[in-house]
Amino acid sequence: MTRTHEEVSYSPEGKRDALTPTSAAQGVEDALKILEGRWKLLILFHLFGGKVLRFSDLERAIPAISQKMLTQQLRQMEVDGIVRRIVHHQVPPKVEYCLTDWGQSLCPALDALLKWAALREMNSDPPAEGG
Amino acid sequence: MTRTHEEVSYSPEGKRDALTPTSAAQGVEDALKILEGRWKLLILFHLFGGKVLRFSDLERAIPAISQKMLTQQLRQMEVDGIVRRIVHHQVPPKVEYCLTDWGQSLCPALDALLKWAALREMNSDPPAEGG
Questions:
Q1: Which residues of B are less than 8 Å from A19 in CB distance?
Q2: Taking a C-beta distance cutoff of 8 angstroms, is the pair A56, A74 a contact?
Q3: Residues B35 and B45 sit within 8 Å (Cβ to Cβ)
Q4: Are the CB atoms for A87 and B130 separated by under 8 Å?
Q5: Any CB–CB contact under 8 A between B18 and chain A?
Q6: Rounded to a whole number, what is the distance in Å from the CA of A45 to chain B's nearest CA?
Q7: ipTM above 0.90?
Q8: Is B14 left (phi over 0), alpha (psi -120 to 50) or beta?
Q9: What are the Cα distances from residue B13, in Å, to A106, A116, A126, B90?
C-alpha cells in the first residue's frame, strides 16, 4: 500500500509545485511550533555560530531561567532535532550542548525574520483608498 | 562599570552590531507575534504575489473561517501594517485587500522557514556521544 501523505514537495530551489496557500501556511505553522516555548529562541541564539556550551554556561547566560525549565527546553529541542547533547564519559561526566546541523540551518530563516521586522519603519504604507 | 554581557555581534551581513542573543530572540518573538492568530498565515499566503482580493474572495478561499473571524484577522493585519484595505467609492462600495510592501516582504522570511522545515529529513543527526 502506498502512502502519499506529504506530497508538498516544496523544493527549495524555485519549483514549489505542489505548494498551496494551505500547505504553505501549515508548513510555516509546523516550523514555528518547534520554536514555541518561552526560552527556545534565546537558547538558539546562544548556540548559533557553532558554540558548544555546558549546562552551567547556559544557566549563566540566561539567569532568568530555572534549572528545571532549562532542562526541559533543552530536552524538547534535542527531541526535535535542533540541539545535540554531547556526553563526555569522564569523571565527573561532562555534558555539552550545541546545535545540530539542522538547528544551525535555522539561522538564515530567523535572520530573514529579523530583517523583515527591521524594515517595518521604512514601510509604513498609509491606509489606501482606491478609485 | 562596563557590562559585557555577550557582545554576540551576530551579523550575517556585517552590521547589526548591537544584536545580542537576548535582543535577537526578542526581535524574532516580536516578529512572530504579528503572525499569531489562527488564520493570518493562511490569509498571507493567499495574498502573496501581489494578489488583490475582495472579502468574498477570501471567504471562498478559506471556507472554514467565519465572517466575523475573517474581519477580525484582516483588521489586525491592517493595523499591524501587513494588509492594505482598499475602498473603492462606488455603488455598491467595493472593498479589496492586498498586502502592503512590508507584508509582501515577509515572503522571503516565510520561505526560508519552509526551506528549513524541508531540510529536516535530510539532517537527522543521531544523538552524539563525545570522547
A1: 114
A2: no
A3: no
A4: yes
A5: no
A6: 5
A7: no
A8: left
A9: 16, 14, 30, 48
